[in-house]
Amino acid sequence: MVAKGEKYRVILVDDEPVILRSLRVAVPWEELDLEIVGEARGGEAALQLVHELSPHMIISDIRMPGMDGITLMKEVLAENANRLFIFISGYGEFEYAREALREGAFDYLLKPIDHDELIEMIRRAKKTLEKQMENDKLLHSVQVLSVLARERMFAEFIEGNQSQSHLQHMRWLENSELMQDYFMAVIQLDHFMKLNEQWSPEERRLWLFAVRNILGEWSMARGALTMFPFHGGEWVLLFPSTLTSQKEELGSDVIRQIQLYTKLSCSIGFSQTVAGMERLSEAYQSAARALYQRFYSDRAGVFVDQPSRESGVDREAKYPKHLEAVLLDSIRTLNRERLLSALDETKQYIEEQGFSKEAAERIIVELTVVMFRQYEQMNLLSEWSLEGLLQELQSLETLHEMIGLLKTNFGRWISESRDSQFKENVQTVIAKTQEYILSNYHKDLSMEEVAERADLSISHFCLLFKQVTGYTFLEYLTECRIEKAKYILKNSHVKVFQVAPMVGYQDPRYFTQVFKKVTGMTPTEFREVGA
């Protein structure tokens, strides 16, 4: 409502100059941290000032020539109900004053003006404005947290992390929309890694923020169910199946919009149609498969995942998911020997299936992309180029050469990553994140923020943090907050509801629930036992 450091703005309205002068001089505006931004001698002039100066408070005579105070108030409150009116009325105008209160006035004062009474009334009005500002901030925080929770829950489902609690939480996020048929679009900025190297951290935030705004407005206008960022340089959109026939049009349009407003190029992959929240991961894999096609075309564009058209062949059944899992786990654990062995198994699998060169190349390219993305998510990439590797793969003629190239490159990258990753002891990195949590537990601390402090991807940070501390991030943060709360309760007389925000909980009821879950007692019971 008012920015930090700014004063609440006040307009004075009265047709008698002596009254205006008295109000201006007799009230300690500076001491009250208020500022008179305008004066008017009639309702019409006051309304103009309101439009120009956006005041928080209007102190006005109730009876004036032309537009009276009550009419003025009705006009102003219709535009912004949070503005406060204090009326000054004569003894014979009591009925007007009562009407003003019914219509929404904060209070009224009878003439002749008792300035002490007026000052006290203004103090109360200011407190009301401050309360409104706190409520506005709280509402904004709740809305932001709701959006973040929604995005995080979608991300969990896309990554395949589904639990019964997730399913229950998702019911209030998307109880109906995703129960019907829908399809997913995944948008990726082209050459994102190269751009990421060129951008400063601030430039990166600004560019990604700009793309997100463009996609947010565009998706609402084009009937999308939701839109949110997923990985760096990547956004997910969900559409109702009624728009299935418009995939090419939708894709081309969003690419044009991003190119027009940011000059950045991107590609978009559309999934096949699915239904149900639990199939978000399947939809993402389908859209990602569609995006693999851009590496064949070597250009930005719209790509749509289609059911396999190979005669008598089910492409999904032939893709070696079991080998993909082994390869990804080898990268996550930086196990070079296991990776090389899994690539040999991949070669053997393709030979045994008798794939054509085209089919074999498609499987190898898909494996290469998902393996590279695992490196990307772990923040282990250096000067490595996915596009260069894919181009080299496609220039080779035999399966032996293709597998040999992957073994050479990925084997070398694991060795380099293993060497660089342990230059700084993992224990030291996690210890630094623990110190950061201990210093910032009272804030709205996110896993993303702490992982960024450790210069790790979220998935890699979670893995290392659990290995070193034995806790998940949320468990550790909760333990830290409750320990601080116990200390405050034992060593001070701060009220329980005041303790909650001091340790990072804005909702005292939720704080009490968490405290009891951890300690077996409510905060009040704990204080009484420790007394």
Automatic annotation (TrEMBL):
Source superkingdom: Bacteria
Keyword flag Ribonucleoprotein: no
HTH araC/xylS-type domain boundaries: 431-529
Database matches in PROSITE patterns: HTH_ARAC_FAMILY_2, RESPONSE_REGULATORY
SMART domains in the cross-refs: HTH_ARAC, REC
Positions where 4-aspartylphosphate occurs in the chain: 61
Record domain Response regulatory: where: 9-126
Secretion signal, residue range per the UniProt entry: none
InterPro entries: CdaR_GGDEF, CheY-like_superfamily, Homeodomain-like_sf, HTH_AraC, Nucleotide_cyclase, Rev_trsase/Diguanyl_cyclase, Sig_transdc_resp-reg_receiver, Tscrpt_reg_AraC-type_HTH
Transmembrane segments: none
Alphabetized UniProt keyword annotations: DNA-binding, Phosphoprotein, Transcription, Transcription regulation
Family annotation (PANTHER family): ARAC-FAMILY TRANSCRIPTIONAL REGULATOR (PTHR43280), HTH-TYPE TRANSCRIPTIONAL REGULATOR EXSA (PTHR43280:SF2)
Protein name stated in the entry: Response regulator
Provenance organism: Paenibacillus rhizolycopersici
